[in-house]
Design brief:
about 280 residues; alpha+beta; Immunoglobulin-like; seven-stranded mixed beta sheet; five-stranded antiparallel beta sheet; 6 helices; about 25% strand; globular
Amino acid sequence: MKFFIFIPLLTILLQNNQSKTNITGSITPDTSSVRHVQDGLVSEWPDPMFQTDKETNIQYAADNDEQDLYIAMKIPDFAVQMKTMRMGMSLFIDMKGKKREGRRIEFPVKNENTGAGGFNGGGASNEQRSDPNQQGGPQKSLNKATMRSRFVMNLIKLKLFGFGSVDPYPPAQELQMPGSVNVNYSWDENDVMYLEYLIPLNLLEKAPSMDNKTISLGWKINGVGMPTSSSASMSPGGGSRSSGGGGFRGGGGSRGNFGGNSGSGQADMEKMMKEQSFWTKYTFH
Protein backbone atom coordinates (compact mmCIF):
# COMPACT_ATOMS: atom_id res chain seq x y z
CA MET A 1 0.00 0.00 0.00
CA LYS A 2 2.80 2.45 0.82
CA PHE A 3 4.40 1.74 -2.56
CA PHE A 4 1.27 2.87 -4.45
CA ILE A 5 1.04 6.05 -2.37
CA PHE A 6 4.68 6.91 -3.06
CA ILE A 7 4.38 6.82 -6.88
CA PRO A 8 1.76 9.63 -7.23
CA LEU A 9 3.64 11.72 -4.68
CA LEU A 10 6.89 11.33 -6.63
CA THR A 11 5.11 12.27 -9.86
CA ILE A 12 3.78 15.48 -8.31
CA LEU A 13 7.22 16.44 -7.00
CA LEU A 14 8.84 15.88 -10.40
CA GLN A 15 6.20 17.98 -12.15
CA ASN A 16 6.63 20.82 -9.70
CA ASN A 17 10.40 20.83 -10.17
CA GLN A 18 10.33 20.96 -13.97
CA SER A 19 10.22 24.76 -13.95
CA LYS A 20 10.22 27.43 -11.30
CA THR A 21 8.91 30.13 -13.62
CA ASN A 22 5.14 30.49 -13.53
CA ILE A 23 2.99 31.70 -16.41
CA THR A 24 1.70 35.03 -15.16
CA GLY A 25 -1.54 36.37 -16.56
CA SER A 26 -2.41 36.61 -20.21
CA ILE A 27 -2.13 39.27 -22.88
CA THR A 28 -5.47 40.69 -23.96
CA PRO A 29 -5.26 41.62 -27.64
CA ASP A 30 -6.70 44.89 -28.84
CA THR A 31 -9.74 43.94 -30.89
CA SER A 32 -9.63 47.17 -32.83
CA SER A 33 -7.56 47.24 -35.98
CA VAL A 34 -4.01 48.31 -35.12
CA ARG A 35 -1.84 49.02 -38.13
CA HIS A 36 1.51 47.66 -37.06
CA VAL A 37 4.61 49.30 -38.49
CA GLN A 38 7.84 47.37 -38.14
CA ASP A 39 10.12 50.28 -37.34
CA GLY A 40 11.43 49.36 -33.91
CA LEU A 41 9.06 51.85 -32.27
CA VAL A 42 5.86 51.01 -30.43
CA SER A 43 3.89 54.24 -30.83
CA GLU A 44 1.02 52.43 -32.58
CA TRP A 45 0.56 50.03 -29.64
CA PRO A 46 -2.09 51.17 -27.11
CA ASP A 47 -0.65 51.35 -23.59
CA PRO A 48 -3.35 49.08 -22.06
CA MET A 49 -2.06 46.20 -24.19
CA PHE A 50 1.21 46.04 -22.26
CA GLN A 51 1.91 43.93 -19.21
CA THR A 52 4.96 44.35 -16.97
CA ASP A 53 7.35 41.77 -15.56
CA LYS A 54 8.03 42.90 -12.00
CA GLU A 55 11.57 41.58 -11.76
CA THR A 56 13.00 43.11 -14.94
CA ASN A 57 10.48 45.95 -15.42
CA ILE A 58 10.16 44.81 -19.04
CA GLN A 59 6.80 45.61 -20.65
CA TYR A 60 5.44 43.33 -23.36
CA ALA A 61 2.42 43.03 -25.64
CA ALA A 62 1.20 40.85 -28.49
CA ASP A 63 -1.29 41.15 -31.32
CA ASN A 64 -2.09 39.36 -34.55
CA ASP A 65 -3.81 39.70 -37.89
CA GLU A 66 -4.57 37.00 -40.45
CA GLN A 67 -0.95 36.67 -41.55
CA ASP A 68 1.36 37.55 -38.67
CA LEU A 69 1.92 37.54 -34.93
CA TYR A 70 3.28 40.83 -33.60
CA ILE A 71 5.15 41.16 -30.32
CA ALA A 72 6.46 44.36 -28.76
CA MET A 73 8.75 44.97 -25.79
CA LYS A 74 9.82 48.02 -23.80
CA ILE A 75 13.02 47.74 -21.75
CA PRO A 76 13.36 50.92 -19.66
CA ASP A 77 16.05 49.71 -17.23
CA PHE A 78 19.51 50.45 -18.65
CA ALA A 79 21.14 47.63 -16.67
CA VAL A 80 18.65 45.13 -18.11
CA GLN A 81 19.35 46.50 -21.60
CA MET A 82 23.06 45.94 -21.12
CA LYS A 83 22.57 42.41 -19.83
CA THR A 84 20.20 41.58 -22.69
CA MET A 85 22.53 42.92 -25.36
CA ARG A 86 25.64 41.36 -23.87
CA MET A 87 24.35 37.94 -22.79
CA GLY A 88 21.53 37.42 -25.29
CA MET A 89 17.80 36.76 -24.96
CA SER A 90 15.36 34.15 -26.28
CA LEU A 91 11.66 34.47 -27.06
CA PHE A 92 9.85 31.12 -26.73
CA ILE A 93 6.58 30.28 -28.46
CA ASP A 94 4.69 27.21 -27.25
CA MET A 95 1.68 26.51 -29.42
CA LYS A 96 0.30 24.09 -26.79
CA GLY A 97 0.02 26.82 -24.16
CA LYS A 98 2.59 25.23 -21.86
CA LYS A 99 6.21 26.23 -21.20
CA ARG A 100 8.22 24.24 -23.70
CA GLU A 101 11.37 25.90 -24.97
CA GLY A 102 11.80 24.00 -28.23
CA ARG A 103 10.73 26.82 -30.55
CA ARG A 104 12.53 30.06 -29.91
CA ILE A 105 13.90 33.24 -31.44
CA GLU A 106 17.30 34.24 -30.16
CA PHE A 107 17.87 37.99 -30.24
CA PRO A 108 20.13 39.58 -29.25
CA VAL A 109 22.52 36.75 -30.08
CA LYS A 110 25.12 36.19 -27.41
CA ASN A 111 28.72 36.31 -28.54
CA GLU A 112 30.25 33.02 -27.41
CA ASN A 113 33.34 34.89 -26.26
CA THR A 114 31.26 36.99 -23.89
CA GLY A 115 31.92 36.40 -20.22
CA ALA A 116 31.37 38.27 -17.01
CA GLY A 117 34.30 40.63 -17.44
CA GLY A 118 32.33 43.55 -18.85
CA PHE A 119 30.14 43.65 -15.78
CA ASN A 120 33.03 44.64 -13.52
CA GLY A 121 34.90 46.93 -15.83
CA GLY A 122 35.88 44.71 -18.72
CA GLY A 123 38.69 47.01 -19.80
CA ALA A 124 36.32 49.91 -20.39
CA SER A 125 37.63 53.42 -20.31
CA ASN A 126 37.00 55.72 -17.37
CA GLU A 127 34.38 57.53 -19.44
CA GLN A 128 32.54 54.27 -20.09
CA ARG A 129 32.80 53.25 -16.46
CA SER A 130 31.28 56.48 -15.16
CA ASP A 131 27.66 56.11 -14.18
CA PRO A 132 25.56 57.58 -17.01
CA ASN A 133 22.65 58.04 -14.63
CA GLN A 134 24.63 60.36 -12.36
CA GLN A 135 25.30 62.83 -15.17
CA GLY A 136 22.77 65.11 -16.73
CA GLY A 137 21.76 66.17 -20.21
CA PRO A 138 23.63 65.17 -23.35
CA GLN A 139 26.55 63.64 -21.44
CA LYS A 140 24.23 61.05 -19.88
CA SER A 141 22.86 59.97 -23.27
CA LEU A 142 26.33 60.05 -24.79
CA ASN A 143 27.69 57.65 -22.18
CA LYS A 144 24.76 55.29 -22.62
CA ALA A 145 25.18 55.34 -26.39
CA THR A 146 28.89 54.63 -25.96
CA MET A 147 28.19 51.65 -23.75
CA ARG A 148 25.53 50.31 -26.13
CA SER A 149 27.94 50.55 -29.05
CA ARG A 150 30.17 47.96 -27.40
CA PHE A 151 27.55 45.27 -28.08
CA VAL A 152 26.24 46.38 -31.46
CA MET A 153 27.61 43.23 -33.11
CA ASN A 154 25.14 41.19 -31.04
CA LEU A 155 22.26 43.12 -32.63
CA ILE A 156 22.80 42.49 -36.33
CA LYS A 157 21.60 38.86 -36.57
CA LEU A 158 19.00 36.53 -35.09
CA LYS A 159 18.75 32.75 -34.76
CA LEU A 160 15.69 30.53 -35.12
CA PHE A 161 15.31 27.21 -33.30
CA GLY A 162 12.44 24.77 -33.79
CA PHE A 163 10.91 26.48 -36.82
CA GLY A 164 11.06 23.36 -39.00
CA SER A 165 14.83 22.94 -38.97
CA VAL A 166 16.36 20.06 -37.00
CA ASP A 167 19.78 21.69 -36.98
CA PRO A 168 20.75 22.18 -33.30
CA TYR A 169 23.13 24.95 -34.37
CA PRO A 170 21.25 26.96 -36.99
CA PRO A 171 23.10 29.73 -38.78
CA ALA A 172 22.34 33.31 -37.87
CA GLN A 173 20.15 35.21 -40.31
CA GLU A 174 19.44 38.83 -41.15
CA LEU A 175 16.94 40.75 -39.03
CA GLN A 176 14.87 41.52 -42.12
CA MET A 177 13.99 38.55 -44.36
CA PRO A 178 10.77 38.25 -46.42
CA GLY A 179 8.68 35.29 -45.31
CA SER A 180 10.65 34.79 -42.11
CA VAL A 181 10.82 36.21 -38.60
CA ASN A 182 11.70 39.91 -38.59
CA VAL A 183 13.06 41.91 -35.66
CA ASN A 184 13.43 45.67 -35.27
CA TYR A 185 14.81 47.66 -32.35
CA SER A 186 15.43 51.27 -31.35
CA TRP A 187 15.82 53.68 -28.42
CA ASP A 188 13.85 56.81 -27.68
CA GLU A 189 15.02 60.14 -26.26
CA ASN A 190 14.69 58.73 -22.73
CA ASP A 191 16.97 55.78 -23.58
CA VAL A 192 14.13 53.26 -23.37
CA MET A 193 14.87 50.28 -25.61
CA TYR A 194 12.13 48.94 -27.89
CA LEU A 195 11.92 45.57 -29.63
CA GLU A 196 9.39 44.48 -32.24
CA TYR A 197 8.95 40.95 -33.60
CA LEU A 198 7.00 39.99 -36.72
CA ILE A 199 6.35 36.24 -36.92
CA PRO A 200 4.47 34.79 -39.93
CA LEU A 201 1.68 32.53 -38.70
CA ASN A 202 2.48 29.89 -41.30
CA LEU A 203 5.81 29.34 -39.56
CA LEU A 204 4.00 28.50 -36.33
CA GLU A 205 1.21 26.19 -37.43
CA LYS A 206 -0.37 24.99 -40.65
CA ALA A 207 -4.00 25.71 -39.88
CA PRO A 208 -6.82 27.50 -41.72
CA SER A 209 -7.41 29.73 -38.71
CA MET A 210 -5.98 30.29 -35.25
CA ASP A 211 -8.95 32.22 -33.86
CA ASN A 212 -9.33 31.64 -30.10
CA LYS A 213 -6.22 29.48 -29.94
CA THR A 214 -4.22 30.12 -26.76
CA ILE A 215 -0.43 29.88 -26.79
CA SER A 216 2.35 30.63 -24.32
CA LEU A 217 5.05 33.24 -24.82
CA GLY A 218 8.17 33.28 -22.71
CA TRP A 219 11.38 35.26 -22.52
CA LYS A 220 14.71 34.26 -21.06
CA ILE A 221 17.63 36.62 -20.53
CA ASN A 222 20.82 34.63 -20.16
CA GLY A 223 22.75 34.90 -16.93
CA VAL A 224 26.39 35.84 -16.59
CA GLY A 225 28.75 32.98 -15.78
CA MET A 226 30.86 33.73 -12.74
CA PRO A 227 34.53 34.10 -13.75
CA THR A 228 37.18 31.91 -12.22
CA SER A 229 39.55 33.46 -9.71
CA SER A 230 42.30 33.68 -12.30
CA SER A 231 40.14 35.28 -15.00
CA ALA A 232 38.61 37.67 -12.49
CA SER A 233 42.01 38.93 -11.45
CA MET A 234 43.42 39.42 -14.95
CA SER A 235 42.18 41.78 -17.63
CA PRO A 236 42.15 40.71 -21.30
CA GLY A 237 45.26 42.80 -21.81
CA GLY A 238 47.16 40.94 -19.15
CA GLY A 239 46.93 43.52 -16.36
CA SER A 240 45.35 42.77 -13.03
CA ARG A 241 42.00 44.16 -12.00
CA SER A 242 39.65 43.87 -9.10
CA SER A 243 36.45 41.89 -9.48
CA GLY A 244 34.59 44.47 -7.41
CA GLY A 245 33.94 48.16 -7.93
CA GLY A 246 34.32 49.86 -11.28
CA GLY A 247 32.28 49.66 -14.35
CA PHE A 248 28.85 48.29 -15.06
CA ARG A 249 26.19 50.30 -13.29
CA GLY A 250 22.45 50.11 -13.14
CA GLY A 251 19.94 52.22 -14.96
CA GLY A 252 17.77 52.98 -11.97
CA GLY A 253 18.66 56.52 -10.94
CA SER A 254 20.59 56.34 -7.69
CA ARG A 255 21.63 52.72 -7.88
CA GLY A 256 25.09 51.79 -6.77
CA ASN A 257 27.48 50.12 -9.15
CA PHE A 258 27.49 46.35 -9.37
CA GLY A 259 30.14 44.96 -7.12
CA GLY A 260 30.01 47.87 -4.71
CA ASN A 261 29.73 47.46 -0.96
CA SER A 262 26.17 48.73 -0.69
CA GLY A 263 23.28 46.33 -0.35
CA SER A 264 21.62 47.66 -3.49
CA GLY A 265 24.83 47.21 -5.46
CA GLN A 266 25.08 43.59 -4.36
CA ALA A 267 21.45 42.98 -5.28
CA ASP A 268 22.03 44.49 -8.73
CA MET A 269 25.06 42.28 -9.26
CA GLU A 270 23.11 39.18 -8.31
CA LYS A 271 20.38 40.09 -10.80
CA MET A 272 22.95 40.43 -13.55
CA MET A 273 24.53 37.08 -12.74
CA LYS A 274 21.36 35.01 -12.72
CA GLU A 275 19.15 33.92 -15.58
CA GLN A 276 15.84 35.78 -15.70
CA SER A 277 12.69 34.52 -17.39
CA PHE A 278 8.97 35.15 -17.48
CA TRP A 279 5.98 33.66 -19.32
CA THR A 280 2.50 34.76 -20.32
CA LYS A 281 -0.38 33.51 -22.45
CA TYR A 282 -1.84 34.95 -25.62
CA THR A 283 -5.12 34.13 -27.37
CA PHE A 284 -5.40 34.74 -31.11
CA HIS A 285 -8.34 36.76 -32.40
